Amino acid sequence: MLARPPFEWNLTGNPIFVHLISSYQTTLLQLAKTNFGEIFASWIHLKALRIFVESVLRYGLPPDFAAMAVKPKHKMDRKAREVLNTQYGHLGGIHGQQVQSKSGDADEALEQQYQSLFDNDYHPYVFFDVRWDPERK
């Protein structure tokens, strides 16, 4: 029995396949451009809904809060979070505030350390990160 050579697709040489691929690529690009705005708006609406639900769960009813978007300058994320933590630290209870003195209540310091073990990304305010880079290829 003769061994058959493995089958290989040669799409670059056939003009029919080249035309099909370019038409599919054009159609896909048109669909992506058309639907991107709706998908992005839906994504932002989901973020807004999460902010509302998290705020009600954290601070209770009736809902009385202000939602805002903050875009810090390049490499200023940590500084912006520190400023927000100092401004709104009183909303987070013992976990949102720093222990003031070393001679303070040891139980409160221990409780704060215990809470930070389980939730390292806790903020005294509701925080959702929207990572989107329009120039990413």
UniProtKB/TrEMBL annotation:
InterPro entries: ATPase_V1-cplx_csu, Vac_ATP_synth_c_sf
Its job: Subunit of the V1 complex of vacuolar(H+)-ATPase (V-ATPase), a multisubunit enzyme composed of a peripheral complex (V1) that hydrolyzes ATP and a membrane integral complex (V0) that translocates protons. V-ATPase is responsible for acidifying and maintaining the pH of intracellular compartments and in some cell types, is targeted to the plasma membrane, where it is responsible for acidifying the extracellular environment. Subunit C is necessary for the assembly of the catalytic sector of the enzyme and is likely to have a specific function in its catalytic activity.
Subunit structure: V-ATPase is a heteromultimeric enzyme composed of a peripheral catalytic V1 complex (components A to H) attached to an integral membrane V0 proton pore complex.
Species, as recorded: Jimgerdemannia flammicorona
Family stated for the protein in its record: Belongs to the V-ATPase C subunit family.
Record-given protein name: V-type proton ATPase subunit C
Domain of life according to the entry: Eukaryota
Gene3D superfamilies per UniProt: Vacuolar atp synthase subunit c, domain 1
Keywords: Hydrogen ion transport, Ion transport, Transport
A GO cellular component annotation in the UniProt record: vacuolar proton-transporting V-type ATPase, V1 domain
Pfam families: V-ATPase_C
GO MF term set: proton-transporting ATPase activity, rotational mechanism
SUPFAM superfamilies: Vacuolar ATP synthase subunit C
